[in-house]
Specification:
single chain, about 250 residues, mainly alpha, Serine Threonine Protein Phosphatase 5, Tetratricopeptide repeat, two-stranded antiparallel sheet, 11 helices, rod-shaped, periplasm, Cell division coordinator CpoB, YbgF_tri, signal
Length: about 250
Amino acid sequence: MHTAFKLKSVTVAALLAATAFLPLTARAGLFDDDEARKAILDIRSKIEALQRDVANKADKNSVLTLSDRNDNLQSQIAALRGQIEVLTNEITNAQQRQKDFYVDLDARLRKLEPQQVQVDGQTVAVGVSEQQAYDAALSQFKGGDYKGAGNAFADFLKRYPQSGYAASAQYWQGNALYAQRDYKGAIAAQQVVVKNYPDNPKAADALLNIASSQAELKDKAAAKKTLEQLIAKYPNTPAAQTGKDRMASLK
């Protein structure tokens, strides 16, 4: 083998392989994106430094020694390349995991965003937990658990006082109290509907419930007055028609 050629090929192989003796902190699965890149750059910089160092010190006497070590160094070079490949693969995997994470996070956040729903003829924004709380309270009422429903609607109004469901929650709370024969409590609850939500469709029904509660309390005069208010203020509602029918029984 020609001495110059041998010096060139063996020296390059040795320089690359020599890095196998350097401490290597990269391990598959333990690096994140930035750490893997830094490890690769560190390996390459050390290779370049050793290339310069050996090139400066190489002479004819060192050629034979390097040639004898060539086979061993070649296997170490292969191992070093394998480690670089592992790190490169780790970068790719980390990038994919990050992409998957943000896609999943975006999907989860969208589920938590307020949804536009129709409530008493109005389009309102309702949060997920808000909708669940209202539905749960209404389900209790429909299931005949009037005490539980009344408490649930009261809790709902404390948690979501500005909710698009506030008028309905207040109305159903009054109905839950009426169902428990707490007529005074029912009147108080329905008066809040009439006062705070006069333009809501539930206001007419609230007046009808107030009149029913007053009739149960044997206060026919008050019940008649409430029905007159209902008929005058909400004349074209089903509640007003029911009110007219009940007026006759109060005479």
